Task: inverse folding
């Protein structure tokens, strides 16, 4: 039995409505295997963790339904699909805008979700308001994005860019351990 490449239960997990449970040793082991390779069969995972395939399936479905497993994805190598330049951009926003009824943060958040060059955006504490992770083809694509999109946004006051020279560690796996809180 294979794990489907994409999961969508259609249910929204609401942490406030769900009781806090601890992830047990077997859940943690299953999650570690799935994070390493989500295409492993239930038979393979079952053999590794000492359960039957049907027990693994039940646990995985429960973890999906509870929102512990959000989805399954294929991770691509940016360079292999023509995206050779990565940058991190710190963004500071104007504190008020007269041209919009929305706050600068709301306006920026709405815009950033539509920019395909931004693969991750985090709101920050401290001097800067947001950190953007950009993945683009080259310096010309970076320049176009900055000049035509980011710096033209009415909420943006200042930006500081750092380019990735070498990726020392890159993982999507979370350090899940038995006893971790589950919502």
Result:
């Amino acid at each position: 039995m294979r794990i489907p490449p994409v999961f969508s239960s259609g249910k929204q997990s609401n942490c406030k409505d769900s009781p806090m449970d601890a992830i047990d040793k077997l859940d943690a082991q299953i999650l570690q295997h799935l994070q390493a390779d989500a295409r492993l069969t239930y038979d393979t995972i079952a053999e590794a963790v000492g359960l039957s395939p049907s027990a693994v399936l039940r646990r995985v479905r429960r973890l999906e339904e509870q929102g512990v497993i959000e989805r399954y994805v294929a991770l691509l190598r940016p360079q292999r699909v023509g995206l050779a330049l990565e940058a991190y951009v710190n963004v500071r926003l104007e504190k008020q805008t007269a041209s919009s009824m929305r706050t600068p943060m709301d306006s920026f958040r709405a815009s950033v979700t539509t920019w395909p060059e931004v693969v991750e955006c985090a709101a920050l504490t401290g001097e800067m308001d947001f950190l953007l992770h950009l993945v683009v083809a080259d310096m010309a694509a970076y320049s176009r994005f900055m000049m035509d999109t980011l710096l033209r946004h009415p909420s943006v006051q200042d930006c500081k860019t750092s380019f990735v020279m070498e990726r020392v560690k890159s993982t999507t796996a979370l350090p899940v351990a038995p006893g971790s809180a589950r919502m």
About this structure: The longest strand covers residues 85-93.
